[in-house]
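Dear Dr. H.,

I hope your travels went smoothly. While you were away I took the liberty of generating a structure for the chain from your last submission, since the lab meeting agenda had it listed for discussion. I wanted you to have the full record in hand beforehand rather than looking at slides cold. The sequence, exactly as received, is reproduced here:
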Amino acid sequence: MKFALAQLDIVWEDKAANRLKCENLARQASEANVELLLFPEMTLTGFTMNVPMMGEEQNGDTTQWFQQLAKKYRVAVGFGVIEKILKGDKGKNNYIIVDKDGKLLSCYSKIHPFSFGEEALHYQGGTSLALISYKQWILSTFICYDLRFPEIFQAASKEASIITIAANWPDERIQHWEILLKARAIENQCYIAGVNRTGWGNGIKYSGASMVVDPLGNVISQAGSEEALIICDINLEKVYNIRDSFKLKKDRREDLYKNLYTTTELINIET
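The corresponding predicted structure, in token form, is as follows:
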């Protein structure tokens, strides 16, 4: 499958300006015969806590616009959007994928709002995984801070052959981003594709480093710190071959892990 990561320099809370950027990158992707184009978290707004102004109802203007973009350029598209919940003060940080006909394939709500950055005060956490079948691939989507929680990746990779992470991951912790993307690929024996933003937003510096990692942890494509379109071909057989030759998941003891979470006690040893 040929897919692309669109590393955007997102203009802070300016949907019109960011639509122009997205359309330009979608045009480039279409000319390169890309089948799936992935944008960063909160694609048209940046990582904002302004849910009342930037949020939209489910299937609102942003979703409809990206559906039209997908149809215009005949490419499946993944994008981040803020969902405004009619009942309650908090929103949802969503990632949506539509096919080249604009049909909705999945909508994932970020399971782990970033409490360190006050996201948890403004967004409620999701409660389910998103798994879709696309061109013989099983794909699962996560968002930014989710990358730090390996349990959900293990659950998704029972089926998924590629897992994507859309992010607004700051430059201050970019080393963690790079290390964790590789670790998740190795642990789950699948492709990991992380698409990050770049530039400045709300006084925070972002340095991109979007990348595609193969099931062995090798970086097969990576962006620098500039706005860019990364185009990459990936091979489903590689996932199957690695999982068949080194049966890592067979040795997992999930029943034991569940018990350890609930029964672990501190043992005092006197010396």
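Two observations you may find useful: The longest helix spans residues 15-31. The chain has a mean pLDDT of 96.

With kind regards,
E. W.
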